[in-house]
Specification:
With about 325 residues, this protein is an alpha/beta fold. It has one domain (about 30-285). The chain is about 25% helix and about 20% strand. The protein has nine helices and twelve strands. The strands form three sheets. Strands 2-3-4-1-6-9-10 form a seven-stranded mixed beta sheet, with helices on one face. Helix 4 (about 160-180) runs parallel beside helix 5. One of its GO terms (molecular function) is O-acetyltransferase activity. This is Trichome birefringence-like C-terminal domain-containing protein.
């Protein structure tokens, strides 16, 4: 991608040319390293996007892919490099940790510690975190305190944004204790917008959403349902970190892309019902993104921040 965009993806302010994505260069820079994405299905989409951007630069016999439980591993054998994804939609341990069987409703997270997940993060040279969507399904989240696995005991409710703050602080503390800035880099990808209500961009179609949208939103000031409070929490917590944490701000640039979602083309858990087929917008996925598509741009921004940090820091 080449264009005049600032580091946060806006098209205003001091412009800088973003370098074009170079798969061979990125693989060379990853030689002997482990890159790990940690988060939910939006982060997994970005992970798959990156694999698609890279795999054509690797001969068929020199790459492999496997998934074991919550961990997916892509190996670029000629480069002795791995690019991995670890499913942890809320970063902290939760009852949503099963990579296949999980629900957004009735979420319960463990307040501390983070050992169940963080043991998989150890040794990664590049960590790319995201966590947002699962925190927005309701105003409150249940927190299980202590080490007891009995979910009937010692459960408190907390405002979702404050529970999110608590978990992000734990991630930051983990990075401070475990990440060596000389040998590793950490990034946090901001909230991925949804387009579930077309009235937000002035389309008053009853029950309208992203279904059958074929053009981006043209209003540069458009802001949908993305929680500014959650974005503020992310900014405030990451600012406390004693080790550098890069922010890949994909929110505003993705807000415009009502046309970029998988809509009815996503593989469903179950076949659509006859009623749904009669009204496709009723089961359109307005959360996840088509590939190739929006997530490729996220990776181009990540590529820029990874390998051209001097340009980023100058802004």
């Amino acid at each position: 991608m080449c264009g005049a965009k600032t580091a946060d993806g806006d098209s205003s302010g001091g412009a800088v040319m973003v370098p074009s994505f170079n798969a061979t260069m990125m693989l060379e820079m990853l030689r002997g390293k482990r890159m790990l994405f940690v988060g939910d299905s939006l982060n997994r989409g970005q992970y798959v996007s990156l694999l698609c951007l890279l795999h054509r630069a690797i001969p068929d016999g020199a790459k492999s892919f496997e998934t074991v439980d919550s961990l997916s591993i892509f190996r670029a054998k000629n480069y002795d490099a791995t690019i991995e994804f670890y499913w942890a939609p809320m970063l902290a341990e939760s009852n949503s940790d099963d990579a296949v069987v999980h629900r957004v409703d009735d979420r319960v997270i463990r307040g501390a510690p983070m050992d169940k997940h963080s043991r998989f993060w150890q040794g990664a040279h590049i960590l790319v975190f995201n966590s947002y969507l699962w925190w927005t399904a309701g105003d409150k989240i249940k927190i299980l305190r202590g080490a007891d696995n009995d979910l009937s005991k010692d459960i408190v409710e907390m405002k979702a944004a404050e529970a999110y703050r608590l978990v992000l602080y734990q991630v930051v503390r983990w990075l401070e204790l475990n990440a060596d800035p000389k040998n590793s880099r950490a990034f946090f990808v901001t909230a991925s917008p949804t387009h579930t209500d077309s009235s937000a961009w002035g389309d008053e179609t009853e029950g309208g959403n992203c279904y059958d949208q074929t053009t981006p939103i043209g209003d540069a000031s458009y802001w949908g349902s993305t929680s500014r409070e959650m974005l503020r929490v992310t900014e405030e917590v990451l600012a406390t970190s004693r080790v550098p944490v890069g922010v890949v701000n994909i929110t505003q640039l993705s807000e415009y892309r009502r046309d970029g979602h998988t809509q009815t083309y996503k593989k469903q858990w179950a076949e659509p019902t006859p009623e749904q087929r009669a009204d496709p917008r009723s089961y359109a996925d307005c959360t996840h993104w088509c590939l190739p598509g929006v997530a490729d741009t996220w990776n181009e921004l990540l590529y820029w921040k990874l390998f051209f940090p001097s340009n980023d820091q100058a802004l």
